[in-house]
Amino acid sequence: MNKFSLLLGSLLLILASASSAAKFYKWVDDQGVTHYGANPPQGTTSSEVNTRANASSDQDRELEALDARRNARENAKEEAAKAAEEETRLKSEPDELAQERCEQHRKNLETLKNKPIVRRKNPETGEMEVLDQEEREKMIKNSQKALENCTRN
């Protein structure tokens, strides 16, 4: 009876591991987006993805890289939309836009001079970072130059 239980347990374990190792596929569409699924699409080259829990896989790294590329693409689209909107406003409302920019420079200069710690969003990573003294001085000079142009107009 003991051998039978051991044999039955081993057989169930083998069947359970075989069923959990379902096949999944990875492919890239025409827009460069990577997809994962149980069935590969017809007419597209796909590769099998290793889904075993104890096997080595770079799937997490690939998913992180995919998220980073998607975020970068989304940020680029947003920046392009902002630039297009500003270009339209520059043509239709140049004086109002110049006043808004001058006001923003005044606020930035006040913040840079009066706050002991200034943070900004890193344009490359999207993370918040504390300005070092050198960068702070550089931004103060740039804001002062911009404000000189504001008073001339």
Automatic annotation (TrEMBL):
Biased composition (Polar residues): 41-57
Keywords per UniProt: Signal
Region (Disordered): 37-100
One Pfam short name: DUF4124
Biased composition (Basic and acidic residues): 58-100
DUF4124 domain: residues covered: 11-59
Name recorded for this polypeptide: DUF4124 domain-containing protein
Tree of life domain: Bacteria
Annotated signal sequence range: 1-21
